[in-house]
Amino acid sequence: MTNNGTLRRAIITAPQAIQFEELPVPEPGPDEVLVEVRACAICTWEKRAFTGADTRFYPLVGGHEIAGVVAAIGQRAGDGLAVGDRVAVSGLTRCGKCYSCRRGRDNRCENTWQRDMVPGQPIGPGGFATYKLGSDYQIFRLGADTDFVEGALTEPLACVVRSVKRARVAPGDFVVVMGGGVMGALHVLLAKRQGATVVVSEPDAGRRQRLEALGADCVVDAAATDLRALVKDMTRGHGAEVVFDAVGMGPNLETGLQLVGNGGRVMVYARVYPKGTTIKMDPNLFHEKEIVLTGSMSQNREDFMQAAEMIVRRTADLRPLISGIYPMDQLVEAFEASTRLENYRIVVTM
Question: I need a labelling partner for 141 at 20 to 30 A (CA). Which of 34, 108, 148, 263 fits?
């Protein structure tokens, strides 16, 4: 703990506005673990709050891509954990009692927000802080030599693990990824690990170059390339097995439905903005080609565990996705850097 028994945390209070406050370091309850935060990455959600693109949650104590060290363990918590262990923290709370949780869909826990809300207190996971208190099921052990900055990417990796599993990417598949941001790049890494051929549609030249370095087989600007003709040619007319929308745009989904072949899957990974966006489709596609249009949201505990093990064993190299590391005192500068197109993940260290 800190010498004076306090923690420091950041609060997004308005667009471009961040305040810091000091609070007592909490003692973990029987089923809780106190983590000294060492690194927390900036996700799109916090980025939207900072820029003012999403104003629903002020004041927001953001930060849910967290890695740190176990500082204290509750009486009933910490099976296999010890003080000093390096861990990743899943910011998603799960009640374990609602219909979704009991049906094995705890990534869609119906009480997540209610459990996170404390009257009179800012809402949010609170990872941009020097300490983070979590339930024991939220704590996942990393390796003794795992870099905290890489460990902070366990959560986004887990989300893509879920997406790739739900899309059933298999060896020999032809995969199209729409969008070459950090989440699109993670889809490239995992799809390649499955033995797929991967084509990426990305308009930014700098990102296209980085995606090629990550192993994408072909990276194009769809504005300058006939993507349908390209996919048809590369698959000898069969079409793609899987299309991932990692941008969140209605036209991408319409294109994706035209790119998949018989039995193909179109995965809506990114949240589509603006809310209420609609798409046009021929319903006969589903009957005649037996294609599937579905989505993926967040991650469950298995996904998070698998992502943590991939980082521990270094079966996924996430270092190329880290574009900058900033100390907590420079959180505003870190957020500003995260909004620049040339950057992937920006990580804040405590």
Answer: 108
